[in-house]
Amino acid sequence: MGTLIQPRAIKDILTGILLCVLIIAIIYIIPLIGIFAWMFLPLPVLFYRLKTGRNGGGIIMVASLFLLVVLTRNVAFNTLYFGSLLMTGFFLGEFIEQHLSIERIMLYTIVAVFGTGVVVLFVYTATQDQGIEYIISNYVSRYQALSSQLFSESAQLYPEMKMDPQMLERASSLFVGVFPGIFINSYLTMVWLNILLIKKLLLKKGILIKSIENLNQWKAPDYLVFGVIAASIVIFLPLGVLKLLAVNCLIILMFVYFFQGIAVVSFFFQKKSAPFALRFFLYVLIAVQPLFMFLVIGFGLFDTWINFRKLDTAT
Q1: What is the mean pLDDT of residues 130-144?
Q2: pLDDT for position 2
Q3: pLDDT tens digits, 249-267
Q4: Which end is more exposed in the chain, N or C (fewer Cβ atoms within 10 Å of the end residue's Cβ)?
Q5: Strands (DSSP E) along the chain, which ranges?
Q6: Distance (Å, rounded) from C-alpha 154 to C-alpha 159?
Q7: How far, in Å, CA of 168 to CA of 151, rounded?
Q8: Domain annotation covers residue 153
Q9: Spatial separation of the C-alpha atoms in residues 298 and 56, rounded to whole Å
């Protein structure tokens, strides 16, 4: 993991660039697969950042983004979007290599990526005629129009539901209002997934990194419970923008406890040596059934007080 690029690393760098461009191409060409493919875009940068070093990872990130701009002949939000995914892989590699705790790895990566994105956005708008407020509001308006269209099309597909147009409009506005929470949760999922995948890849090469081992013993900080309580109270108060902020915070916090709940489930699977088929079936059930998803969130939340894994070990 040196900082200088060795001749043998050139092949790895070219392979990393090729993989990144291939994933981006799939996202553009096959949208149905692209819905999931974007989650794997940070992985080539992350893997070769750890293998070839900081310079190699940086070259892969910058070269992939440069090729995207050249091929699409466009510098816009899509470039910032793909650039943030590539940066995610790079910064994950940086902080994993420093052997930080899993919380700090994720937090520092999010801060670094979002901070860089904000700086790039300000620099970009400074060179344009429109200000940053106009670009963001225009993007939000387009997203709101798209969500309204999706709700309208759903109502046409299921006429027996007899959806009221005003109700559809309120649902669309609510969806736009909670979009920040949904977006952050999808980003957290992507970061967590890439950490799990890089852990598997490193284990196959005989590399063990303690900070990302034993993830099934992970537990959210206890003080987050007070955030859940505070957000739950604010939701029932007529506070306008603060109420919307509380809803988004609660969505994010529930997702954090979903991670903790999954860790609890994974811990017992490992302890009881559950067969792969059973694990796969139950994980799919959790993913597609909201009832099981809320049950897992409950496990994560109550684990703060009951500490299921410690009680099980004690017995």
Answers
A1: 61
A2: 45
A3: 999 999 999 999 999 999 9
A4: C
A5: none
A6: 9
A7: 6
A8: no
A9: 43
